[in-house]
Amino acid sequence: MLTITYRDGQNRIGTEELKDYLQEHKTVLDQVKNDRRAYRDALGWMDPEEWASEQQLACLEEKAEEVRKNADAFVLIGVGGSNNAARAVIKGLNGKGPRVYYAGNTISPYQVNELLKELEGKSVYINIIAKNFETLEPGIGFRVLRKWLAGNYGIEAAKRMIATGTPGSHLEKISRENGYTFLTFPETIGGRYSAICDVGLFPMAVAGADIRKIVQGVKDMRKMLYETEGAKNPAYYYAAIRNLLNQKGMMAEMLSFFEPRYRYFAKWWIQLFAESEGKDGKGIYPISAQCSEDLHSVGQFVQDGTPMIFETFLDIKKQDASYILEKDLTDDRFDYLNGMDLWEINKKAFEATYKAHTQSLPCFRIQVEELDEYSFGELFYFFEFACYISGMLLGINPFDQPGVEAYKRYMFEALGK
Ligand code: PA5
């Protein structure tokens, strides 16, 4: 099970201060767990049983298996919450399945042309994921790829298209009219909270991830968070400290990891917190660092620059890869590494960074047993639950995105919609 620890060599938050804060706000944890009144329309993700039941998983696996058997390219059309969770798992696990391509997340004609070139000669299946089906990027991606599919497969094209949308939506209408497979984007789940339903689970399954293990990680995490009170509840503890740090001038949180396979998970995490908390002139700005590479850039700022950043390290316990550095005949002055495993060197780099950073800035360390489906499930639920609590502590609505809506309005005006 995932664990979290917190350290700050400068003791910005006193023990009593934290205790008082946790005591004072404990109704927030109760409310998040038990009171569905405030955000009734946005809390579908809290109960995995509802959207990731045994029956639903079996349906998704069956359809995914069909795609896996017949496709060597799978295009995921979606933007933001409509692809981030799936991409995090697909890139994180490197599962065996058709090669996954991403579309509907850019308007760049260069990228679109590159993608179409890549697809030439391949057996292609497509999954368009859109909640409101008015977003520009996936709308364009869908149109381009629909045409490409029809041009390449004629009447067979419909069999290769899977649409994930809300029941009753225009996307559903198009799907029914054209004979596409239609999956559900639950009305009560917002994009960035949609990892554990058809939206995230179907593409993950196509790419070869064991979605049952993911859901098990979610369920175990949920159980633990619902059964644990006060400071012992890791999500409440994390949310409380980040809000206290924010009150003390910490304006940004950096998710740091020494395993590049977390790169797209970090993108998911950034979206979750940025879109959920950054509103009403409030919020903690989420950024990420892929170490050890980024220690040679932002690492300097984080340690010695304006003291406005705290750090959350993602750490993996179990080794799952190995490369031994052998003795080399050239005297390159790296002989002190002879016989060492890169996994071990990477770990030592992590421990050294953690030691240095905890001396000057507040740091969380979130440790998972292994980089696998189960821990992705744990992490998704942990951060979503924590983000909900944190948003409540901050006094904002963690489930809307009014700023995004405003830019879209101007863009649609400019495009003559
Ligand atoms: O989290 C969110 O709500 C957003 O990031 C959406 O997922 C994103 O804007 C895409 O929305 P849609 O699927 O409706 O096009």
Question: In a few lines, what is going on in this structure?
Answer:
With 417 residues, the protein is of the alpha/beta class. It has helices spanning 15-24, 26-34, 48-51, 54-70, 84-93, 109-119, 136-153, 170-178, 198-206, 211-227, 234-247, 263-277, 298-304, 342-360, 373-394, 402-414, and strands spanning 3-7, 73-77, 99-103, 124-129, 161-165, 181-184, 252-257, 285-290, 309-316, 363-368.
Structure annotation, total helices:
16
Outline the biggest β-sheet: 5 strands, mixed
Query: What order do the SSEs take from the amino end to the carboxyl end, as H and E?
Result: EHHHHEHEHEHEHEHHHEHEHEHEHH
What gap, in angstroms, lies between the N and C termini? 49 Å
Structural class: alpha/beta
Which cofactor or ligand species appear? 5-phosphoarabinonic acid
Proportion of residues in helical segments: 40-55%
